[in-house]
UniProtKB/TrEMBL annotation:
Catalyzes the transfer of a phosphate group to glutamate to form L-glutamate 5-phosphate. It holds the Pfam family AA_kinase. Transmembrane segments: none annotated. PROSITE patterns: GLUTAMATE_5_KINASE (PS00902). Belongs to the glutamate 5-kinase family. CDD domains: AAK_G5K_ProB. It comes from Blautia hydrogenotrophica (strain DSM 10507 / JCM 14656 / S5a33). Keywords: Amino-acid biosynthesis, ATP-binding, Cytoplasm, Kinase, Nucleotide-binding, Proline biosynthesis, Transferase. Its EC number is 2.7.2.11. The gene is proB. It catalyses: L-glutamate + ATP = L-glutamyl 5-phosphate + ADP. GO terms for cellular component: cytosol. Pathway: Amino-acid biosynthesis; L-proline biosynthesis; L-glutamate 5-semialdehyde from L-glutamate: step 1/2. GO terms for biological process: L-proline biosynthetic process. This is Glutamate 5-kinase.
């Protein structure tokens, strides 16, 4: 079985993009060139008839840069203020860019409480379904403005996997600041080996995850990405970790070309999304 070739047939795709892929490292401000390419790629996937969901980080980082704070504040209140400013700016720019390609987009902000409550979870799924049926690209983020430790996902790697499971996506793509999964951290271990395909995400691979991130603005390291892979593959979706430095990688992945690390779907009968969320 050619796992890469099978990616051509995927019809419901969730794409997660991290803060480090959206912003300039030097200033923390939005990288508009990269953002424009991302939007064009997603719009073209929609033009192919695929359902597309974007899980976008960046609200706190954009707000922090706009307010001249020089990084994510440690204080919760200030961090949430940054999210309030940054989320509005981020969505305004997304809306403008998507309109250039005649593509509608909409905003969905979530916390853990959204999914822990049965009625809220049902309504959230219906909202996604309605938007996708109308050809809209939902843009999802954690509701950092109101989220506290007790009700937060904590990182958008996890959130994107939960969204993929919630809506029955058949592919999740995590755009990160690394090419994929390595046997060790390639930034500190020059001999680390790149892993192209993971057919069975067992403890051997999970131990490769380290709670580190290459950026000062992101929250998810390889450990969170492997955790996301466990959720997505158990729910029946393939997942790819790829470098988001060039968002053109999206169409290359969906053409079945050899980019990033592919985690093959391994649906489990005992997988129940609510149980996972409760144990987070």
């Amino acid at each position: 079985m050619n796992f890469r070739e099978a990616l051509r047939e995927k019809q419901r795709v969730v794409v997660k993009v991290g803060t480090s892929s959206l912003t300039h490292a030097e200033t923390g401000k939005l990288n508009l060139t990269r953002l424009e390419i991302l939007v064009r790629e997603l719009s073209d996937l929609r033009n192919q008839g695929k359902d597309v969901v974007l899980v976008s980080s960046g609200a706190i980082g954009v707000g922090s840069a706009a307010l001249g704070l020089g990084g994510k504040p440690a204080e919760l209140g200030k961090s949430q203020a940054c999210a309030a400013v940054g989320q509005a700016r981020l969505m305004m720019i997304y809306q403008k860019l998507f309109m250039e390609y005649n593509q509608m987009s909409g905003q969905i902000l979530m916390t853990k409480n959204t999914l822990l409550n049965d009625l809220n979870r049902y309504n959230a799924r219906n909202t996604f379904q309605a938007l996708l049926q109308m050809g809209v690209i939902p843009i999802v983020n954690e509701n950092d403005t109101v989220s506290t430790y007790e009700i937060q996902f904590g990182d958008n790697d996890t959130l994107s996997a939960i969204v993929a499971a919630l809506i029955g996506a058949d592919l999740l793509i995590l755009l990160s600041d690394i090419d994929g999964l390595f046997s060790d951290d390639p930034r500190t271990t020059p001999g680390a080996k790149f892993i192209d395909l993971v057919e069975n995400l067992d403890e051997h691979f999970l131990r490769m995850g380290k709670a580190t991130t290459g950026s000062k603005v992101g929250t998810g390291g390889m450990a969170t990405k492997l955790s996301a892979a466990k959720i997505a593959t158990s729910a029946g979706a393939d997942m790819v970790i790829a470098n988001g430095e060039d968002p053109h990688v999206l169409h290359k992945i969906l053409e079945g070309r050899d980019y990033g690390t592919l985690f093959a779907a391994n649906p489990r009968e005992e997988f129940y999304l609510l149980d996972y969320i409760k144990n987070m």
